[in-house]
Each structure stands twice: as structure tokens, then as C-alpha cells.
Amino acid sequence: MESLRSAKNNSVALTAVCLAALMFGLEISSLPVILPTLEKVLHGNLKDMQWMMNAYTLACTTVLMASGTLADKFGRKLIFIITVASFGITSLICGLSTSPSMLIITRFLQGMSGGAMLICQIAILSHQFQEEKERSKAFATWGIIFGIGLGFGPIIGGVIVSLANWRWVFLAHCPLSVITLLLVAYSVRESRDHNAKKLDMAGIITLSLSVFGVTYLITKGANLDFTNTNVLIIAVASVLSFILFILVEKRSSHPMFDFSVFKIRKFSGAILGSIGMNFSFWPFMIYLPIYFQICLGYNIVSAGLSLLAYTLPTLLIPPFAERLLLKYQPRTIIPLGMFIIGLGFILMKYGSSVNHASWLTMLPGSLLAGAGLGLTNTPVTNTTTGSVPSSRAGMASGIDMSARLITLAINIAVMGFIFLRGILSNLTDSLPGLLDASHLRLLSERAASGNITFLKQEFSGLSQVNSPGTIIHSALVHGFGLVMLYAGLGVWVLAIISYKIFRLEKIDSL
């Protein structure tokens, strides 16, 4: 009887954790497809859209390492309840936002809740399911639901906006949070680690400040002026914060980043896989829906459906990747996965530049990029935690997640910078001498935001411009093409470096 009650509680606990994972996955992948809508209804611009994503990502990075320690010390169930409730409340405030600034701030608070909630999910599953076989099934189920949230987020977000409005993309998490809280209260067993380590506040603060500073400077883009005192202060503070972070971690008795693990070749090679996925695939999730909507003219539902080719392979390929990992080892699979991601981006660049481009011309590249991500993700996770002693697996997992989120935040900003510069250079070539530099920059920013009506009005006063629609479209395609080229070539470079590091590990073992 007792075993039946325990099994029932475990099933309910797994349901609660999976609901939380679904919310976290949906919040990442459903937002990009509604960004063009948010730009219009909240009167924002491309930088606002970048910060709506980056606020969430940076907040997750800030709390990632701290939340695990707090959960160990004060109770995993207690911290999970607090974070789920906070996620529901901040989602409510996001849905009620009336300006880009308000949404950015509430997204940051939502990201703090989400990052802590994610760490608690892993800790609760590890404690709730003690038997290895049951634990393996639980984590597999959790991974599938998380993947469904990530994979189907774009179309779910598109359908919600078409049936209701953008606010329900956030408000939908409120009832889900309430259901999750009820299930957690009923089923999850409380657990603590009485030997929990001290919170590394100095490391958390210095790393967060340095990443935030770098992301802010990149997002400034063409308006970045190092003669400006405020910009100079932020740049110097970012560099000093990173130096302090390294010094703090080297001297701390309980560092959140133990740099000695990078001496393990297998770990370092796998971390480059984490960086590679978030160098290209995930940050481009912001820009691909914008391409479908403002370049191809798709509505929000059609854009969401087109994105399925990009996201679904990330859900379908991992089981195949696990079998390949057993046969060919991480040193082959991880660089191969990154190479396929890069190839997908090169094909997408070609597909976006052809005459009469459509979702079909983008399909081969989208499928390949998603397949490469699916091939890389599971081997990276298994290798980063499996290449270090079990006592350091939590720390290794923390470094892995931090590398992903930091790379994601920085490359969202970098891609935005490249996108704007690409549009600006194309407009400059298409309108030689007709407009001054500041006016061209303004037009580039409006083009990147999808404000085509404003651009056509501006061009209507220029008698020398015969086909403004063609010029705008050409500039946008050129900007997106540069972003895809950057993503493809960049991940190829990381694949080569990862392969070389894995080769050194193989040589060391001989």
C-alpha cells in the first residue's frame, strides 16, 4: 500500500515538474514569433526586442548558480514553490505591461524566477526518484516535455495571438502556475543538504555585471561612442568586473566556477559545443520569425508554422544522437553536430537570397540547423557532467548552463548589430548621396523594426527612388544574410576548435 502511494506521489510530482518545464520552454520559444507584434503595439524598436529576450536570459544566468545552493540549504520543495509562484506573478505583470521598458523589467524578474525554477526541477527529480531506472525514465519524460515547449512554442505563441492577443502568451502561465503549485504541495517530498556550500555572492555579482555590460555595449550598435563618459565607464567596469570574477573564483573556497575543470580536454571540447549551439541556433530564434514576417510577408501563424522546421528536429533527433554517442564518442558527434548547424545556416542564407524566396527555399537549411542542434545537445550535456568526478557534476552542469546563457545573451546583441549594419550598408549603396548618415541610420533602425509604412513615406519624397519596396526588401535580405553567414561560419570555427581539443584528449590518453 505504501509503495503504491509513493508511486502515485512520484507520478504527480513528475507531472508538476513537467508542467514547470513546459512553461519555461514555452517562455523561451513563444516570444520570438510575437516580437514584430510587440514592436507595433508597444511602439518599440529592435533594441527593445533584443532586451526583452536578453533581460530573461541575463536574469537566468544571474540566479542559476545561487538558486541551487539556496535550494540545498533551505529546502528544494520550498524554493520550488516560491519560484513557481514568482513565475506566475511575473508572467501576470508581463501580460499587463503597457510599454517596452515595463516589459523588459518584468521579463528580467520573470527570468530570475524561471532560472531558479529550472534548477529546482532537476534537484527535485534527483531526490524524488531514487532508483536508477525510475530516475532515468523521469528525466527522459522531463526532457521530452521541455523539448515540446521549445519545439512547439512558436506555433503556440502564434495561435494565441491570432485567437486572443499577445498578452495571453504571458497570462497563460498564471493558471498553469496555480495547477503546478497544487500538485507540488500534494506530492513533492522536501529535501535539504545539511552540508550545503556557502553562496558565492562575489562571483555571481562580478560575472553578472561583466556580461550585462558587454551585452549593453554591443546592443548600442552604431550609436556606441567611446568618447561618451557613460559608455567609457560601462566598458571599463565590464572589463574590471570580469577580471575580479576570475580572481574571486580562484581564491574562493567554494567557487561556482572551478577553472581547473577546463584542463579536462573532454569537458573543454564539450563546453565549446554548448557555446556553439547558443552562438548561432538559439539567438537566431529571435530573427527568423522577423524574417518570415517582414521579408516574406507571412502572418504570425504562418511564421510559427514555418518555424516548426527549425525547432522540431531538436526534439526528434536527440534519441538518435544518444545511440550515435555510444558508437562514435563525443569527439566525433559534438563537432559533427556543430558542423551540421553551420551548414544549415549557409543553406538558409542561400535560400533567403534566391528570387521568390519562401519557407520552401528556407526548409533544407532550417531542417539541417535543427538536426545539428539535436545531434549536439544531448552529447554535450552528458559529456560535461560525465567527464568530471561525480562530486563536481553539479558545478560542471552549472558552468555548462552559464556558458549557454551568456553566449546566447551576447549573440542576440551581436546578431542585432550585424543585422543593422547590413541594412545600413545596403541602403547606403542603394541611395548614394541622397541622405546623410544619421538619416540612413534612422531608416535602418525602422527597417529592422519592420516599420515598412514609415520607410515608404520617407522614400516617397525622393524623386530619384523608383521602387522603394524593392530597396527596402533588398536591404532587409542583405542584413539577414550577413547574420546567417556570421552564425554559420562562427559555429564552424567553434567546431574545428572543439575537434582539435578532443583530439588532444585522445592523444593524452595514448
Care to describe what's here?
The chain has 510 residues and is an all-alpha fold. The protein has three domains: 1-197, MFS general substrate transporter like domains (Growth Hormone, Chain: A, Up-down Bundle); 200-218 and 229-238, no CATH class; 266-510, Up-down Bundle (Growth Hormone, Chain: A), CATH 1.20.1250. 83% of the residues lie in helices and 0% in strands. Helix 11 packs parallel to helix 15 (330-353). The chain starts with a helix and ends with a helix. The model has no long low-confidence stretch (mean pLDDT 82).
How many extended strands?
Answer: 0
Based on Cα principal axes, name the global outline.
Answer: globular
The Cα radius of gyration reads 23 Å
The H/E string reads HHHHHHHHHHHHHHHHHHHH
Unreliable sequence segments: none
Average pLDDT rating: 82
The level of helicity is over 70%
- Determine the number of helices (DSSP H or I, runs of at least 4 residues): 20
What is the CATH level 1 assignment of the largest domain?
Mainly Alpha
Annotate the secondary structure layout.
Elements: H1 2-29, H2 31-41, H3 46-74, H4 76-95, H5 100-128, H6 132-163, H7 167-171, H8 173-187, H9 201-220, H10 229-251, H11 265-280, H12 284-295, H13 300-316, H14 318-328, H15 330-353, H16 359-386, H17 393-430, H18 437-448, H19 452-460, H20 468-509
Helix pairs in contact: 1-5, 1-6, 1-8, 2-3, 2-6, 2-12, 3-4, 3-5, 3-9, 3-17, 4-5, 4-8, 6-13, 9-10, 9-17, 11-15, 11-16, 11-17, 11-20, 12-13, 12-20, 13-16, 14-15, 14-16, 15-16, 15-20, 16-17, 17-18, 17-20
